[in-house]
Amino acid sequence: MLNSWAMPMPQSRLSIPPNPATMIWHYPYPDLIAGTLVKRYKRFLADIELETGETVTAHCPNTGPMTGVSQVGSAVLLSHSTNPKRKLAYTWEAIHTDGVWVGINTALPNRVVKAALEARLFEELTPYDQIKSEVPYGADRKSRVDFVLTTPEQPPIYVEVKNTTWTDSSCALFPDTVTTRGQKHLRELTHLLPEARAVMLYFINRGDCTAFSPGDATDPTYGELLRAGVDQGLQVLPCRFEVTPSGLRYLGLATLVL
Length: 258
Fold this sequence. Notes:
14% of the residues lie in helices and 40% in strands. It is mainly beta and 258 residues long.
């Protein structure tokens, strides 16, 4: 476990001090195991060399290209499951790059955001009394939005969460590849306006980014749809999280650059 982790805690490149009001909110990781990335392959698999010298195959819970966050030889962190029904006992959780830890598990942001919503962490989204997850919506009702927040006598708030790890210096970018699914989400969210509030929450899964922009270089259509949505009232929350071997800490909002 991490008791024997010899690498010092990485220093963040963050230039803006965190908001003291958010410093106490921390989402803990389970005990993690240190290793070194040998290779990532078939999208869902990664070979990791542990400190013992043993090489294990871990589940890579990230279907994207992982631009800039899958360098061979980098320090990584794994979680371990004792569930005998699992094909792979290890899950790749984070990688150390550019002087910071970066979370790569795309299943984690929704769990973190739900806990943050329950704690009323995001003042920009209050008030609400009820949190619903994976709610069908859209013209054909075949899409599911991550969260719907409701309270009497207020329009519902639809929140879509996107994990964000690609950067250009201190600016986080999304997406890092063409995403027709992401484009569809933007169209459907924008279509909800003005009868409901629609929110894109970009989960910046690293602590060294102070700004956020759409990834126009990889998917210019996504950028156009995001800007058009903002013009119509779509709300964008680029939420910054510092990743450490013990968990994630909310740092507040990044500057939105459109």
